[in-house]
Design goal:
alpha+beta; Cell Cycle, Chain A; two-stranded antiparallel sheet; 3 helices; 2 strands; 47% helix; MinE; cell cycle
Length: 85
């Protein structure tokens, strides 16, 4: 063991773990959109545009989900991360 090896970090970047987490998020997002109606992406964009009229937001901070509990009930869930000021 040399002196330089002592100062080197023995921890390797967790790129595989990070990639796996990102892939899980993408897959979950696509599963949620698979059962959504055809008009859903346009409706989501229009909701974002309405919110932008009042508050400056990042579109990435908006999630819209359509949950179907049974054949008679659908729930539209909207989560917006608003800026501090």
């Amino acid at each position: 063991m040399s002196l330089l090896d002592y100062f080197k970090s023995s921890k390797k970047p967790a790129t595989a773990v990070t990639a796996k987490e990102r892939l899980q998020i993408i897959v979950a997002h696509q599963r949620g959109e698979r059962d959504a109606p055809d008009y859903f992406p346009q409706m989501k964009q229009e909701i974002i545009e309405v919110i932008k009229k009042y508050v400056h937001i990042d579109p990435e901070q908006v999630t819209v989900q359509l949950d179907k509990n049974d054949d008679k009930l659908s729930v539209l869930e909207l989560n917006v991360t608003l800026p501090e000021k």
